[in-house]
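Supplementary Note 3. Input sequence used for the single-chain structure prediction.
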Amino acid sequence: MKSIFAIAVFLAVLLPVHSFADDTSKGASVLGVEMMFWDSIKDSKSIEELEAYLKDYPKGKFASIAKIRITALKREASQPAPPAAQTVPPTPLAAQTAQPPPAPVVVVPMALVKGACFVMGNTFDEGGEDEEPAHKVCLENFHMDKYHVTQSAYEAKTGKNPSRFGGCPNCPVEMVSWDEANSYCASIGGRLPTEAEWEYAARDGGKKIKYGTGKNEIAPGDANYQDSGLLKTSPVGGYPPNALGLHDMAGNVFAWVADLYDGGYYASSPKDNPKGPANGNAHVLRGGSWNRNAYGLRAASRIYGAPDFRDADTGFRCAK
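The predicted structure, written as discrete structure tokens, is reproduced below.
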């Protein structure tokens, strides 16, 4: 245990801290130390190590997951060993209805999204101020990747795989900045989707739907998010698509979109094919990720990052 703390403190002093887009730099530094501590024990089956994390970070980013893991480990320790013969449980419905595509996905297939008008923003009276006001938007037809761009697709084009969770050809590429995502899409004859296009596609073509899964409720079998307990990215196509055939429009990794971020933009957004504000210092991220809770996975939820921001929960998909 002492060695884990020592390593975490040593790394915190020597390594540059990677900050989240919506944190202050002081908060980001603390979070960087916490992330390094969590990375060192995230696969541990030691109750002592998980309790040590909770002692240092009782309200930390992974506190709820640590508590769940501790409860499960204690329950497992108290149960007798299972009998030698076990009945094979039935395959979960999600696994029956959606299977990851064969590796490697070097060219991500696209789906046609037929344009129409819809109400964009906070339509469930539970979002942040930057989701207000709900407003009418009309879009032309466009195409969007069915999956996040995979590690194999990105590496085939760029010769690089920056992902923290590497070694998984069909997992989303992550640790990619907006500049890099934008450049990749342009290099294959596409572009990043606009924020309006992304939300329209996540809502099954502009319907009043809370999540990009096509549902108003969400459970671990629907998407890879905090409650799923995976604590990392998962292969694209592993969860059922929405009505447009798009996978992981909620969870797995956030997706960069083309628009610059402005918290008050919705009040002045044009109705037809909006492309975001003309000026700004950050770009919008949509969809939630493996380390976010259900609230962060809502189709209307918005966060943002600087053009050079990178994180293990941040990827992208292309449009045209």
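DSSP finds eight helices and eight strands in the chain. The radius of gyration is 20 Å.
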